[in-house]
Amino acid sequence: MLQAQTAKLPRLVTVGGAITEIVYALGAEAQLVGTDTTSLYPLAAQNTPKVGYMRSLSAEGLLALKPDAVIGTTEAGPPVVMAQLRSAGVKVDLIASDHSWAEVQRKLQAVGRGAGRETQARALQARLDADWAVTQQVVAQFKGRKPKVLFILSHSATVQVAGEKTAADAMLRFIGAQNVMVGFNGYRPMTAEAMAAAAPDLILTSTQGIEAQGGLDKFWSRPELALTPAFKTKALVHLDALELLGFGPRMPATVRALHQRIVLA
């Protein structure tokens, strides 16, 4: 009977690591027939059929998996592929990313709808909303000096810093830190002049970025970083990219942990 019930549930393809993570959090992983290459957590998600990178999907590859629904963010594309899926009768639900707690809620609700598990999604959201409220209270209680933090994106040869209206900027605000890169939106290449002017106390980056640069020693060997106060003490915190910037169900715990490590340290 249980197998029959499971078979009737919608077949899902998820595009975005946080959305895949929510599927597992709702216990709906048996409904997954495909995920994108950013879907790496939990570990079991790495063994799901992969449909490619979220921005360069193929309609043929997706339709071959016979999904009932594709759930992703508005980064999923290209748009013509999303249109082809809808024309083929696949439900496509794309969630806007605005780097807010409401974004996490929208993802939860979309997965609940798409997976046919709205009751479970409401229960999970209630728990996470309560956890987020506690997290906000913890951060708000700190009345000391906000540390000056620089977020570095270094997954490729071009190392960039995070300005305003980025996921990194939002996370820094949520943990109670100060983003030293203001006055521009998005990401820009890191320059010596900018590093000297910004004078960050600490650098925040992803673990994958450290690995892409060849390890911590290689990361710190960049001459631009030698101009910062953070360099003198090698003040750096790194975290898995999905946990750090994914805006998924681990977000309340991640914000509390970073607040402890960066602001209260």
Structure description:
With 265 residues, the protein is of the alpha/beta class. The chain folds into two domains: 2-137, Rossmann fold (3-Layer(aba) Sandwich); 148-263, Rossmann fold (3-Layer(aba) Sandwich), CATH 3.40.50. Helix content is 45%, strand content 15%. It has 13 helices and ten strands. The protein has helices at residues 2-8, 17-25, 59-64, 79-87, 101-115, 118-140, 167-175, 192-198, 207-212, 216-220, 229-233, 241-245, 251-263; strands at 12-15, 32-35, 69-73, 91-95, 148-153, 160-162, 178-179, 187-189, 202-206, 236-239. The strands form two sheets. Strands 5, 6, 7, 8, 9 and 10 form a six-stranded mixed β-sheet that branches. The protein has a four-stranded parallel β-sheet with strand order 2-1-3-4, sandwiched between helices. Helix 6 (118-140) packs parallel to helix 13. The N and C termini lie far apart (53 Å). Mean pLDDT is 95; it is low at 1-6.
Q: What's the SSE blueprint?
A:
Blueprint: H1 2-8, E1 12-15, H2 17-25, E2 32-35, H3 59-64, E3 69-73, H4 79-87, E4 91-95, H5 101-115, H6 118-140, E5 148-153, E6 160-162, H7 167-175, E7 178-179, E8 187-189, H8 192-198, E9 202-206, H9 207-212, H10 216-220, H11 229-233, E10 236-239, H12 241-245, H13 251-263
Parallel strand pairs: 1-2, 1-3, 3-4, 5-7, 5-9, 9-10
Antiparallel strand pairs: 5-6, 6-8
Helix pairs in contact: 2-5, 5-6, 6-13
Organism: Rhodoferax ferrireducens
Domain Fe/B12 periplasmic-binding: 11-265
Pfam families: Peripla_BP_2
